[in-house]
Amino acid sequence: MFKKIIKFLLFIGLLTFGTVFINAAGVIKIGAIVASTGPASFIGSPELKTLKLYVKKINNKGGVLGKKIQLIYYDTGANPRKAVSFAKRLIFEDKVVAIIGPSTTGETMAIIPFVQRAKIPLVSMGGGISIIKPVKKYVFKIVATDRMACKKLMGYMKKEGITKIAMISGSGGFGKSMRKQCKEVAPNYGIKILADETYGKKDTDMTSQLIKIKNTKGIQAVLNPGFGQGPAIVTKNYRQLKIPYPLFESHGVASKKYIEIAGKAANGVILVSPPVVVANKLSNANPLKKVCMDYTKEYKNAYHSDIASFGGHAYDSLYAIVDAIKKEHSINPQKIRDGLESLKNFVGIDGVVNMSKTNHLGLDTKTGLVLLRIKNGDWSIIK
Asked: Within 13 Å and on the Cβ side, how many CA atoms surround 196?
């Protein structure tokens, strides 16, 4: 009992005064918090597989600064409480120099106070803009934000003459955040939201909400902010009700797993996605094509399965930290933070990145997202 009290007091001290940097000689400890099981497993599983694959690749080439990376990871099952517990463990017990993750926006927001006070750099894989806006000194991400997705989708709607829509949003951190962002962005594109429905994380049928939407006069399209199995259920129910308007989805469904779950109902759905899922269809002039093609080949060779855009988030997060370590020639957390903030012309899977003191996303909107339509169970680029 006495030892537990001492450990707790030490932890409080670390959160108050900053983490005392301790790292085993010859090893760089990098933490990862992923939802590799549970409702967000189709996001977290490819993220974890990607981290394992490329940590091994980096180590096989001699590591970083002559040190091997030790990846210490925990599975949250998309539970924010577990994310907080694991963040504390990574900081206090494992003494990592940086943390990758969590997989989702809700989990990320839950751990931000701890990494901020402990002064450990975090590169989140969540999609919500609230993660990096306002700027938080130790928090970064390379994943396209929900606001970027809203702008991309609504820009297309405007081009197609769509001015009146309905939304049906997930109630998790990402769904709430994107719903808010889309409501803010819509007037800029001359779009009115005539119906606004939501569903819970554990809901298995969204028919009642969709019937309300179907019966709302004047609707020309429906937008579904969300991730996980929820959007796939929405898509199935949507087709069962024979709703005649086009269905738009977020980058939270940019995975073949979504198509697998939704089945034929997914055909015709329009979504935004990081370009990696259509790597072979990108223009040769696209600066991301090579890194996306290489990743696709290496992932498929290693796991004999299709890639998901979410694995790219892990790839970029890992290599951004590695670049920061090399640039600063240090594995001190503060130096790594400085290196991340000064990241320039970083060509990743999710886009070209240029960070600054006022921008901890740094993602080029022109390269970060593409518009896709699902045809015959596959992706088709909308030009």
From this structure: 12
Q: Give the chain's domains with CATH numbers.
A: 2-144+292-365 (3.40.50.2300), 146-273 (3.40.50.2300)
Q: How far apart are the first and last CA of the chain?
A: 64
Q: Count other Cβ atoms within 10 Å, centred on residue 196.
A: 17
What's the DSSP call for residue 187?
Answer: G
pLDDT by residue, tens only, the chain of 383 residues: 544 444 444 444 444 334 444 455 689 999 999 999 988 898 999 999 999 999 999 999 999 999 999 999 999 999 999 999 999 999 999 999 999 999 999 999 999 999 999 999 999 999 889 999 999 999 999 999 999 999 999 999 999 999 999 999 999 888 999 999 999 999 999 999 999 999 998 899 999 999 999 999 999 999 999 987 899 999 999 999 999 999 999 998 998 989 999 999 999 999 999 999 999 999 899 999 999 999 999 999 999 999 989 999 999 999 999 999 999 999 999 999 999 999 999 999 999 999 999 999 999 877 789 999 999 999 999 98
Count Cα atoms within 13 angstroms, Cβ side, for 69.
Answer: 28
- Would you say 297 and 290 are in contact if contact means Cβ atoms under 8 Å apart? no
φ/ψ of residue 72, rounded to 5? -115, 115
Q: Give helix then strand counts, H and E, for the chain.
A: 13, 14
Instruction: Label residues 51-84 b or e (16+ Cβ within 10 Å = b).
Output: bbbbbeebbeeebbeebebbbbbbbbbbbbebbb
Question: Do 233 and 264 meet the contact criterion of CB atoms below 8 Å apart?
Answer: no
